[in-house]
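Q: I'm building a small set of examples for a reading group on sequence design. Run inverse folding on the following structure and report the sequence directly after it, with nothing in between.
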């Protein structure tokens, strides 16, 4: 027969162990969410330079940038959330910064690691050579670029050798000399709800073996969608919806069909370069 005092002790012990488990779980969750590091070019925050905050961050942290003009070029090599205070108030201008040592391309923000979110910035002032860009995503997986204004660059947003990236609600317009949003050798990416206007060559580009990308709800003016490649998969594996418009007219993208007529009100019909 078990005494009541022994039962109570066991209950207290089990309760204590359960409480300890809950505390440990909360600590793990807090560590997983990461810490927030603040940046203000006028002082009063953790750092005055964005790059210094990125260098101090760890995977999972948030770098929160207050409004202002930040004259920098950035290397993002941590899996972080990089948040500005809105593209109308928070600008990264790379025009007065020299390229990094050993850099071939004169980009403003370079992302070369998986699992990065970047939002709320105006990014401008890249170089003017092939490959120069406002935001360059290179050899990365699961990158989210949203709510930024990437105008007045050689290329607005440039994604190379990457996959599962989401590019949403950005503005890539006005004097981008080449392409607003350019995907090269990249697959399973989504380009959605962006505005690309008056770019020198094209609003959105898919080339160099890019495949299985989804393009929808984008607004393009004075430029269109350009697809270039040397294999069938390069141009017929994409999902390009009629919700995209060029100069207010829908985009029609046909594949694996024959004997059709492109509607007279189309903003753009398909082009194939092999």
């Amino acid at each position: 027969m078990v005494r009541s005092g022994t039962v109570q002790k066991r209950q207290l012990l089990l309760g204590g162990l359960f409480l300890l488990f809950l505390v440990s779980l909360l600590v793990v969750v807090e560590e997983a969410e990461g810490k927030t590091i603040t940046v203000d070019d006028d002082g009063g925050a953790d750092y005055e330079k964005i790059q210094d905050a990125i260098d101090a961050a760890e995977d999972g942290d948030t770098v929160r940038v207050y409004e202002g003009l930040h004259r920098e070029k950035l290397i993002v090599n941590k899996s972080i959330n990089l948040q500005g205070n809105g593209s109308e108030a928070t600008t990264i201008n790379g025009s007065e910064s020299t390229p990094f040592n050993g850099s071939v391309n004169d980009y403003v923000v370079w992302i070369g690691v998986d699992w990065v979110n970047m939002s709320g910035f105006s990014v401008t002032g890249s170089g003017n050579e092939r490959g120069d860009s406002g935001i360059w995503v290179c050899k990365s997986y699961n990158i989210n670029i949203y709510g930024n204004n990437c105008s007045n660059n050689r290329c607005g947003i440039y994604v190379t050798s990457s996959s599962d990236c989401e590019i949403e609600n950005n503005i890539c317009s006005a004097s981008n000399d080449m392409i607003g949003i350019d995907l090269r050798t990249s697959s399973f990416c989504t380009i959605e709800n962006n505005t690309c206007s008056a770019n020198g060559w094209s609003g959105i580009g898919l080339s160099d073996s890019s495949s299985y990308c989804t393009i929808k709800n984008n607004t393009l003016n004075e430029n269109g969608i350009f697809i270039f490649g040397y294999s069938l998969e390069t141009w017929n594996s994409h999902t390009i919806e009629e919700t995209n418009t060029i100069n207010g007219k829908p985009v029609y993208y046909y594949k694996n069909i024959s004997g059709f007529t492109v509607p007279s009100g189309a903003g753009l019909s398909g082009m194939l370069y092999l």
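Residues 58 and 199 are 36 Å apart (CA to CA).
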